């Protein structure tokens, strides 16, 4: 019996926003995923991992080329594991953390076992969790403040134009960085320093602003509006809209005509 849900996957170029009733660990062995928790985000790479406690809202989009270990830890099973205390401390709050070389090598080496031997998932998950707990001290687990960066090359007007012209499609940080002739990592840091939010959050903000305009000024079906601003389905659109504006798009439109 496995107490954990451990899997190796490829996080696709698809925007996902949700929360769930279990803890989650995310480690990448290659590629990049933009991820934010309750509005604060970083890039998940082989050098940066993430711990997401249960019920915390988070949003992410992968680059389509990553290899990622995702570990779900159901709270109902936690007390039955041999590392319950360590897990409880690790997931006291949302954390982005530096992945030391030893942990990266461990995760990379175990990836084939994860894919081929489901019976070993509890042992592999326990090993990874204990490695994180033992190798990372409290300072390494805290969310580090962004370092001041030069952001003179960020042209927000140009970026806004690009985003608004591509709202119906997937927009990744590489696309935005290319508009400023910056590397994705440098762009991400500069953008957060300049705007106070991640590129993912900024794009989402503009998607929803355009959606609100369409809800208020048109009679288009909500499913069509969702697709026009880049949401994969009406349900995820409605949830994101309600979080942003305190009301679902359908109720918003209905209230305008009462």
Characteristic terms for this protein:
alpha+beta, globular, 5-stranded antiparallel β-sheet, 9 strands, single chain, Jelly Rolls, 12 helices, Arc Repressor Mutant, subunit A, 258 residues
Q: Would you mind describing this structure in some detail?
A:
The structure is a single chain. The chain is of the alpha+beta class. It has two domains: 5-141, Jelly Rolls, CATH 2.60.120; 156-256, Homeodomain-like (Arc Repressor Mutant, subunit A, Orthogonal Bundle), CATH 1.10.10.60. It has twelve helices and nine strands. The chain has helices spanning 75-78, 84-90, 101-116, 121-135, 138-141, 156-165, 173-179, 184-195, 199-217, 222-228, 234-245, 249-256; strands spanning 5-9, 16-18, 22-30, 33-37, 40-44, 48-52, 58-62, 67-74, 95-98. It has a five-stranded antiparallel beta sheet. Strands 2-7-4-5 form a four-stranded antiparallel beta sheet, with no helix packed on it. Helix 3 (101-116) runs antiparallel to helix 4 and helix 7 (173-179) crosses helix 8. 32% of the residues are buried.
Concise summary:
This protein has 258 residues and is an alpha+beta fold.
| Lateral arrangement of strands in the main beta sheet | 1-8-3-6-9
What is the H/E order? EEEEEEEEHHEHHHHHHHHHH
Number of domains: 2
- Number of helices, where a helix is a run of at least 4 consecutive DSSP H or I residues: 12
Q: Supply the helix-strand structural class.
A: alpha+beta
> Would you identify the CATH architecture of the largest domain?
Sandwich
- What is the C-alpha radius of gyration, as a whole number of Å? 20 Å
Q: Whole-number average pLDDT?
A: 87
Give the oligomeric state: single chain
Number of strands: 9
**Roughly what fraction of the amino acids lie in strands?**
15-25%
CATH superfamily of the largest domain: Regulatory protein AraC
Q: Predict the CATH topology of the largest domain.
A: Jelly Rolls
Percent helix: 40-55%
Distance between the termini: 56 Å
Biggest sheet record: 5 strands, antiparallel
GO molecular function, one term: DNA-binding transcription factor activity
Keywords: Activator, DNA-binding, Transcription, Transcription regulation
Domain HTH araC/xylS-type: 157-255
Protein name: AraC-type DNA-binding protein
